[in-house]
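SAMPLE LOG
Freezer: B-3
Tube label: C17
Construct: single chain, 275 aa
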Amino acid sequence: MSDPNTLPTPPWWNSRESRHAARDEERRQRRQQRAEERAARHGKQPGLPSHEPVTPESVADAALHVIDAAGLDGLTVRALAQELGVGTMTLYWYVKNKDEVLDLVSDRLLAGVSFPPSEQDWRVSARQGAIAVRAALLRHANAVQVLVNRGSFGPNGLRMLEESLAVFRAAGFDDNDAADAYFTISNFVTGFCTFETASPGRAGHPGMDMRSYGQVLRQYIESLPADRFPNLHAAAPRIFSASLNERFEFGVDCLIAGFEARLRAAKTASSSSQS
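STRUCTURE (predicted):
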């Protein structure tokens, strides 16, 4: 009987796992033999290979380190192999191609992130969960687009999905609305992070940081005729004074308020149909 607490291994890793064990042991023995031969030639004590065992987690962590330092375009098989301390061809024993690496990276971004338990107020859980996911993504800003493009259905992604659905279902949302609420808030978080981590290389200001770019925009808007753009002039102070944290939390709060209104309407309709 399988352990109910054990998650299925992602298919991109599980499909090779059975034959990897035997190959890993064979390679370990060959590396040990070569190390002993080198030690004998140089009069040193034999030792184990310098790199750590290669695991899905270590591949993802190494890839994230490369992406953090060199951007997504800097993630190559050669760069990843060097980060792991293995040969390029050796790396292909562990991952089939770059797509598999990106799948591992996408899931690894969500490691350690949890929606708070569904026992507390669901609105608090949803809000805290959204904030936690954003914080996790911003720790690896260069990799946000990986999650946006590929999604995550590895162990961490599945756990996040299960926890968030539990929050909404425990609140009383039916199965369809619980799923839609999850994807709505998930899309808002990843979309906001995409905007937040994008380079504002627009209007002839490539490489400018968001704060400086905002100042340029504000100066431009304030130069516009107020009689033609009265609403823009009225809103300009808030447009350029609110922090990204404030904007993000405002958006999350609005989404949750909308979910709450929908839940209330559904309960009212259910009560009316039963009376």
